[in-house]
Amino acid sequence: MSWYHPFFVTDNEFEMQKSINNRASCRYLALLILAMTWFAGAGIANAAETADAKVVFQVSSGDSVTQNLVLNNATNLQKELGIQHVTIEIVAYGPGLGMLTAGSPFRDRVEAMAKQNVRFSACENTMAAVERKTGHKPQLAAGVDTVPSGVARIVELQQKGYAYVRP
User: Fold this and answer.
1) Rounded CA gap, 44 and 37, in Å?
2) Residue 157 to residues 23, 60, 126: CA-CA distances in angstroms?
3) What is the C-alpha to C-alpha distance for residues 139 and 127, in angstroms, rounded to an integer?
């Protein structure tokens, strides 16, 4: 058994002990970096999983296939992310306004989705144009709000960080 003291060892023994210490230090440093990377990655993943999404859908087409697609996309988004983790607004103007009216084949679905935290916004400019043309304002489905301008509302929401979807 040898007694270790830096003053009483040969140069060879001293170099060997330094080498062992250096390898051990490198291993500990590598383990520390690995652990820090793992914890940081877990923190980023958890933050991404809990981040809330904000999405605005544009409906400016009178095509029922497109309107149905918008409703399907909104429903699927809520299922995927969870109702509590996504804010959805569907803005309708021009020919797309028909989707939000009381006479629409989508009325029941729009009313049900409005109760499931989907906001529906009808363009007042379009409603005024319909009134000028037909003599009466369109009757909206229950749960549908109005905004002065559909396009301006979309721009406003995009400025607030909403993702923009137009199927």
Assistant:
1) 10
2) 56, 16, 19
3) 9
What is the residue whose two structure tokens read 């060892």?
9
* Average pLDDT value for the chain: 84
30-51 mean pLDDT: 50
Q: Where exactly are the structural domains of the chain?
A: 7-48, 52-165
**Looking only at Cα atoms, what is the longest distance across the chain?**
107
pLDDT tens across 113-163, in order? 999 999 999 999 999 999 999 999 999 999 999 999 999 999 999 999 999
Which of 18, 13, 104 lies closest to 62 in space, CA to CA? 104
Tell me, which fold does domain 52-165 have in CATH?
Answer: Hypothetical Protein Ychn; Chain: A, (3.40.1260)
Query: How do residues 86-99 score in pLDDT, each as one tens digit?
Result: 999 999 999 999 99
Strand order in the sheet with 53-59: 144-147, 118-123, 86-92, 53-59, 163-165
Task: Return d(Cα 38, Cα 130) in angstroms, integer.
Answer: 59
